[in-house]
Write a structure and sequence with these properties.
The structure is a single chain. The chain has 307 residues and is α/β, with parallel strands linked by helices. The protein is 34% helix and 20% strand. It has helices at residues 63-73, 94-109, 124-132, 148-154, 161-173, 193-204, 220-230, 234-242, 263-278, and strands at 4-8, 16-17, 27-29, 33-34, 56-60, 80-83, 113-118, 137-142, 177-185, 210-215, 247-251, 256-260, 283-286. Bound molecules: iron/sulfur cluster.
């Protein structure tokens, strides 16, 4: 892929609370870039106002300097910082990895927790940093499938499932609390019984104990990107047939709406997924922000609160 990389200065404070419902209780978020080189077909951030366009990554070049000035001015330091809500902090772009490393190092040196969700490959210098500060780090590895063929269609430039499994293994071996996000589950494509069994069997071999699950939510832009990814493949029709009985849902996470599968479908499948996961001693939780209509004890984002 030919990636267009550019740089801008961030004008506003780096440490600002997120408007997302999931990040309350002293958790702030940092996005080192606008845009994301992973180009996942189901990515909601590709519809954001600040999205620079496909194959474009705009790096905030002054984040570290701003943060160095901001931290001493804070009366109360944030409990933790989450990377990232609209990009991936581990995109395979050297300048992104460099700024991410320096910011995480600075935060950890102030005793501020670091939490991240990634579909990228985590370089070894980060692994050493996380091992040294393991009690302050919370890792979430996004893994929608362990099937490389499906993954490649949906997340063409993200790390392979194999590399993500290696990330998980390395993080767990270094004492970092690590959970997996099976988000989004794609109906009719990644939720067959055999596919799910294979998924949990594979991740259990890396000692995973906790997985957060969420079904794909549709927006027009996501539909268009999925159609582009699948081309004329029958898989596209099979997926969208299942949404015919669906409904619009309110998303607690960001005060917006999206189109979801019917509550019956989701409830049944979440139970099935939980039961398959339990064969491998893995606990599943349902993402609460996006499923408040079907489940009352769903979880919101766990950052450093590992309850
Ligand atoms: S890694 Fe996340 S932010 Fe990046 S394209 Fe995929 S879903 Fe979007």
């Amino acid at each position: 892929m030919n990636l267009d990389i550019s740089f801008i200065d961030r004008k506003t404070n780096v440490l600002t609370p997120s408007s997302l419902h999931c990040f309350r209780n002293g958790i702030v978020t940092i996005n080192p870039t606008q845009g994301c080189s992973h180009q996942c077909a189901y990515c909601y951030a590709r519809g954001y106002r600040i999205y620079p366009g496909d194959q474009k990554v705009v790096i905030y070049q002054n984040l570290l300097n701003k943060l160095r000035k901001e931290l001493p001015r804070k009366r109360v330091l944030p409990k933790a910082v989450f990377f990232s809500t609209s990009c991936d902090a581990f995109q395979p772009v050297p300048q992104v990895l460099e700024v991410t490393y320096l910011i995480m190092e600075l935060l950890l040196s102030h005793g501020i927790g670091v939490s991240f969700l990634t579909k990228g490959n985590i370089p070894m210098n980060f692994m050493a940093l996380f091992e040294e500060n393991s009690s302050l780090v919370n890792a979430k590895i996004g893994l929608i499938t362990v099937n490389r063929r499906i993954q490649q269609v949906l997340e063409p430039y993200a790390a392979t499932p194999e590399k993500r499994l290696k990330n998980i293994e390395r993080l767990i071996n270094r004492g970092v609390y690590t959970e997996v996000r099976m988000d989004p589950v794609i109906p009719g494509l990644t939720d067959g019984e055999d596919i799910i069994d294979d998924y949990f069997k594979t991740i259990s071999e890396c000692n995973v104990k906790s997985v957060i699950v969420n079904y794909l939510l549709l927006r027009n832009m996501i539909k268009r990107n999925l159609k582009k990814a699948f081309g004329l493949n029958r898989a596209y029709n099979r997926i969208f047939d299942l949404y015919e009985a669906g409904m619009t849902v309110e998303l607690k996470a960001e005060n917006s709406r999206a189109f979801a599968l019917s509550p019956e479908y989701r409830r049944g499948k979440y139970d099935e997924i939980a039961s398959i996961a339990s064969r491998y001693n893995i606990k599943t939780d349902i993402c609460g922000c996006k499923n408040s209509d079907v489940i009352s004890n769903a979880v919101c984002s766990r950052v450093v609160d590992r309850s």
